[in-house]
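Posting this for the archive.
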Amino acid sequence: MNSVFEIAGVTPLTVENTRIALEGDFPVLYQKSENGEERVGVFKTQRAFPFEKEEEFLVLLSEEGKELGFIRKLSDRTDEEIAILQKDLARRYFMPRIKKIHKVKEQFAFSYWKVDTESGPLEFSVRDTYKSLIHLGARIIVTDADGNRYDIPDYHTLDKASRKQIDLYLW
């Protein structure tokens, strides 16, 4: 009987059948077999569920964008491999956390944001603000006009003035 993974045509990547290493700054996948290891190549890590399951169902893509397989849980890998994967994910999913919202001004179907983040002050514009805010319970993800994302981990922890700036767009 075929497994769900075989039917779907996806390959689970485990410590038994693969190894992850660094070559310079690039993560590289090796396929293990009875005859040793074969270098598959450099890969990019992508989350199948980027907001709900940040450390589960990680998809490895070749440089050409071809799916190499997936890792069920990050914690299933070795400590060294976890560090490599986390570094690759941090590079791909960098999202400054918004600590304070000074101003949100609406003009010509755009809103212009002036905020403080953990990385310092920022200004950015958002196209179609209502559609550019993703609500995940108390967490809000803001996507700007250039596709950059910003994280508000818990809307309720923002100060009253910050919440007032975005209340209109939330409910």
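Helices lie at 4-8, 79-92, 129-132, 160-170. DSSP finds four helices and eleven strands in the chain.
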